[in-house]
Design a protein that fits this description.
single chain, 227 residues, alpha/beta, Rossmann fold
C-alpha cells in the first residue's frame, strides 16, 4: 500500500517565495531601465563615472558653484562623478576632498578618504587633510542604506543631512555654499527651516537627471550666517 503523500507549501513558505520573486522582478526592471537610461549611456560615452554627473552639471550650470581655485569637499562621493567634475572646474589650483565608505578609484586633483562619515576617526582624517583651511563648497550626495520602510529611511536620510550641515557650517568660508541631497517626506520642512536659519539664501533644486519616480531633492544653501 502506497503511504506516500503530497507536501503542500506552508503559508509562510509561499509568502517568502512571493517576496523573492517580487524582488527579482524589481531588480530585473531596474537593470532594464538602467541599461536604457540616456544619462547612463551619456556617462559611458563622455567618461563620467555615473549618471549622477549630470545632476551636478545642471545645478552648476544654473548656480555657478564651481570656480577655479576653490577648495571643495564631496561627501558620499563614490564612485566619483561629482569629484570628477569638481576637480576639472577648480583646476589648476583648486583642491577636492572626496569621502565615502566605498572605495573610490583615484582621480587627478582629488584627495580620497575612505570611511564612514559618521565615524569620528574618519571625520578627523578629513579635517587633517583640510589642514585647518576653510572650504568654498561642501557637496553632500550621501544616502543611507535603504530598508524600504519610508519613515525609517527618511529619518536616516535627514540624520546624514544634518551631520553634513553641521560640517559645512564649521568649515565654509563666509561666501561658501552647501549642496545637499534629501528625500521628500516626513522631516523635509523641518530640515528646510534649519537651512534657512543657517544660510542667507536657500534654494531647492530638482535636476532633470533625477529620475522622475525618485523622491530625491537637493537644497542649495549660500553664504552661511555667522553666529
Amino acid at each position: 500500500m502506497d503511504r506516500s503523500f503530497a507536501v503542500f507549501p506552508t503559508h509562510d513558505y509561499r509568502r517568502k517565495r512571493e517576496v523573492r520573486m517580487k524582488k527579482h522582478r524589481s531588480k530585473k526592471a531596474w537593470l532594464d531601465r538602467h541599461v536604457h537610461d540616456p544619462y547612463v549611456q551619456r556617462a559611458v560615452q563622455e567618461g563620467y563615472r555615473s549618471r549622477a554627473a549630470y545632476k551636478l552639471l545642471e545645478i552648476d550650470e544654473k548656480d555657478r558653484l564651481l570656480q577655479p581655485g576653490m577648495r571643495v569637499v564631496d561627501l558620499g562621493a563614490a564612485p566619483g562623478a561629482w569629484s570628477q567634475i569638481a576637480a576639472a572646474r577648480v583646476a589648476p589650483t583648486g583642491k577636492v576632498f572626496a569621502l565615502d565608505r566605498l572605495p573610490i578609484v583615484s582621480l587627478p586633483g582629488v584627495t580620497v578618504i575612505q570611511g564612514d562619515f559618521t565615524d569620528e576617526t574618519v571625520l578627523n582624517a578629513l579635517e587633517q587633510a583640510l589642514e585647518g583651511q576653510p572650504v568654498d563648497l561642501v557637496l553632500s550626495d550621501m544616502a543611507p542604506n535603504l530598508s524600504g520602510i519610508a519613515i525609517t529611511d527618511a529619518a536616516k536620510s535627514f540624520h546624514l543631512a544634518e551631520l553634513a550641515l553641521a560640517f559645512a557650517l564649521e568649515h565654509l568660508t563666509p561666501n561658501g555654499a552647501f549642496l545637499v541631497k534629501v528625500f521628500q517626506g516626513p522631516g523635509i520642512d523641518a530640515y528646510r527651516q534649519q537651512l534657512q536659519s543657517a544660510f542667507h539664501t536657500v534654494l531647492p533644486r530638482k535636476p532633470k537627471a533625477s529620475r522622475s519616480e525618485s523622491s530625491e531633492l537637493y537644497f542649495l544653501g549660500k553664504r552661511p550666517k555667522r553666529r
